[in-house]
Automatic annotation (TrEMBL):
Domain of life assignment: Bacteria
Protein name per its UniProtKB record: Anti-anti-sigma regulatory factor (Antagonist of anti-sigma factor)
Record SUPFAM superfamilies: Ligand-binding domain in the NO signalling and Golgi transport, SpoIIaa-like
PANTHER family: BLUE-LIGHT PHOTORECEPTOR (PTHR33745:SF8), RSBT ANTAGONIST PROTEIN RSBS-RELATED (PTHR33745)
Length: 340
């Protein structure tokens, strides 16, 4: 292999090699690849964020950084290398590889804690091009992985200084922790699940509101059957809210029809009516009487009559008929008319 096909150099503590005949670039004897930060690699990260969203991309980069760092740390751990010696050696290697400058501010092997400071890291340079306002997660996640591998124990981090937020450098504090990248992935999944649940709940609430409005519109409508005679059919069960709505609707809309008679058709009511429903009857009758309208009730069942008999309300002023036809005939007769 001639010099045009193979080239090796040392830069700082890093070893680089090229095998152009094979199309290979080597870093520390292993296959590597180069990207332009300002264009290709930025586009790569932009695409991840575009597809997965900022929050998911942050967790993906943090997890990737941690797992890559763990490979580095476990390599030295398995070689039984001294963590203190390794951590002093790594700044030269990472700097030579274009990761930025790394300073070891504090390192305690016994406590398994460290404070690392990075300036002009590749992540900071990309974040600056992206106009980010918050620090990235790959670099601190990566060093947490490296230290986890070196110490043989899970290490996590907190950011104490951020270059992208205006400081002169990024500073990370590392310490033993129960926080793991897997836990963060699961937490992200839970948050996304809660977001989807909230969206679904919002849709259900909106649809329920729409259906409720529709029910209010069509429930117990005021139906003019003949001149000055209207019918209100009562259907199903009436709770406090539905009773209040019907009473308010009747009082406000009934005068529009100028009726002399209001026929309450209770044929569609449940057999087992409540005291609240009986109270609704009497409130409707009292309200319509104040408007000068006579009330007729039709469709009363034995169950209804028993409930109304045991109530404390007086019903002597109300006319009752078996069905709507008889009620209409009575109202017409009172007006001196009949159906031919």
């Amino acid at each position: 292999m001639n010099n045009l096909e193979s080239k090796q150099i040392n830069v700082g503590r890093a070893h680089f090699g090229w095998e152009t005949g094979k199309g290979s670039f080597l870093f520390e004897g292993e296959d590597a690849i180069l990207f332009w930060i300002n264009s290709a690699f930025k586009t790569f990260l932009d695409t991840i964020e575009e597809v997965s969203g900022d929050e998911s991309a942050s967790v993906v980069l943090e997890t990737t950084g941690f797992r890559m760092g763990l490979i580095v740390g476990e390599f030295f751990y398995n070689e039984e290398a001294s963590p203190g010696e390794v951590i002093q050696m790594l700044p030269g290697i990472y700097s030579s590889a274009g990761w930025g400058t790394l300073d070891v501010v504090r390192f305690c092997q016994n406590e398994k804690k460290a404070v690392l400071r990075m300036t002009n890291s590749w992540e900071y340079r990309i974040n600056k091009l992206q106009n980010k306002k918050e620090h990235g997660t790959f670099i601190p996640g990566h060093w947490a992985g490296v230290l986890s591998g070196l110490f043989g124990e899970n290490i996590w981090y907190r950011v104490t200084s951020s270059q992208v937020e205006g400081e002169g450098y990024c500073e990370f504090e590392f310490f033993p922790s129960s926080i793991t990248v897997n836990e963060n992935i699961h937490e992200l999944a839970r948050r996304k699940e809660q977001v989807e649940i909230h969206k679904l709940e919002t849709i259900v609430q909106e649809r329920t509101r729409e259906l409720s409005d529709l029910i209010k519109e069509i429930s117990s409508p005021i139906i003019p059957v003949l001149d000055h005679i209207v019918v209100i059919p009562l259907l199903g069960k009436y709770n406090e809210d539905r009773s209040k709505e019907l009473l308010e609707k009747t009082i406000h809309e009934l005068p529009k029809y100028d009726p002399d008679f209001l026929i309450l058709d209770v044929t569609g009511l449940d057999e087992d009516i409540s005291e609240l429903t009986v109270s609704l009857f009497h409130q409707l009758i009292a309200a319509t009487n104040l408007l000068g309208i006579k009330t007729i009730m039709v469709g009363i069942t034995p169950g209804h009559s028993m409930k109304m008999t045991h109530s404390n309300y007086q019903t002597a002023e109300i006319k009752y008929f078996a069905n709507l036809k008889h009620g209409i005939h009575y109202a017409l007769g009172e007006k001196g008319k009949r159906i031919i």
